Amino acid sequence: MSNATLLLSATGIQRTLARMAQEIAERNDNGTEVVLVGVQRGGIHLADRLSRMLADIWGHPVPNGRLDVNMHRDDLNRQMPPEVHATVIPFDVTGRAVVLVDDVLFSGRTTRAALDALNDFGRPKRVQLAVLVDRGLRELPITPDFVGKAITTRPDDHVEVRLKEDGGEDAVYLRHA
Amino acid sequence: MSWNHRHLLDIQSLSAEDILTVLDTARAFKAVGERAIKKVPALRGKTVVNLFVEPSTRTRISFELAAQRLTADVINFSAEVSSLKKGETLKDTARNLEALNADIIVMRHSAAGAPHFLARFLKSSVVNAGDGAHEHPTQALLDLFTIRERKQTIAGLKVTILGDILYSRVARSNIWGLLKLGAQVTLCGPATLVPPVFRQLGCRVTYDLEEAIAEAEIINLLRIQHERQRQTMFPSIGEYTSLFGLTQGRLARTRPDVLIMHPGPINRGVEIDSEIADCGRSVILEQVTNGLAVRMAVLFLVNGGKGPQEIAA
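Above: the input entities. Below: the structure tokens describing the complete assembly.
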């Protein structure tokens, strides 16, 4: 872990997600229309956790799906074929308030692809974006609605989000190249 | 995840990890086919040419639909109506297609090695959709996908391939794929159509049908390739059916969890009893559904597998 700075500890992640859940609840007074969709792979566990927290706040279950954006990427010509994972959206998104959840927001291209992919599943009433870390350096006009931690990075830095669900610790590190 | 191939020419040259990459990728593409909108933009702006020098309906339709579901443009080119009939060589035909900026050429040809030949000089990706009696890689991949989906794993499974092995590209591709993933492969059929030389690949060869199917967890039936046989390899269809046809009586003496597979088109009453083709143990139509997903995965992967030199750019 040379050149690595701890951005969020385990308790930091927990507090940050709890705050984000409160913000999502504040912005969406009708909780019954909210569904969470985690972006593969980094967003799915975060969407799970936020969904449980929101269920506690609202007192009813909050549906939770997962979306793989790799078939909708804009760089398929420029790289090795990406690993594609399952997209599971076991509810109709039409008329719902969809909160897209991802771990790190960087260029915005993944979010752009996610919006396209989501479009194939219906027409949401609105879509909001929740990210644990906003590292800046956007290449598209995309702004998150809910941000865990905003930091300034250089393009070749690496933000590493580790979660217990993947076996290991809860922590976010910033690595300088 | 491992894939670094610009072409899909055969199963023989793939690693076990390559095969599993295709199967994993196909799982995601199968889900696309189950949605209301069955289309993704992964091959948007790409051109796929189906170059079918040997006629085929089901494989061509499957590739055509796969390309369309990936948002590629598709051209179908069949030998009967093409310039090949006017005396153009295969190489010239392929070069003409490339001059139209075809990105992927899917080829079926009656000559073994024809796709390998194209791949040597074309910049386009080449996908083998069946070359003579050599290989039919996407058929094997969809068979492996179907087996894995039903049985979870392939390693250690007892698989019997029954019928015309000698003239079957499906058999060859399946044998390579199954052995690479650790299955135990038994071949059975008339001695004239199941040469003992297949033992050298690691298959078990038997001419006793009852013994071949008794312990099998998968029975893959192959059609008699009348069109490829240069002479009669067995006395009559009736005799083939009575000795090697999968009848209800024979099925009763197999494992209760056996899966019956067939690459199609099936000849009801010849290699398979009509009732068996429609019974709960038959996955013949699942194979067709899975074939579409596997071909989407293959087109997606060969399009991306440009090799390390282009990735650096």
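Note for the figure: Chain A has a mean pLDDT of 92.
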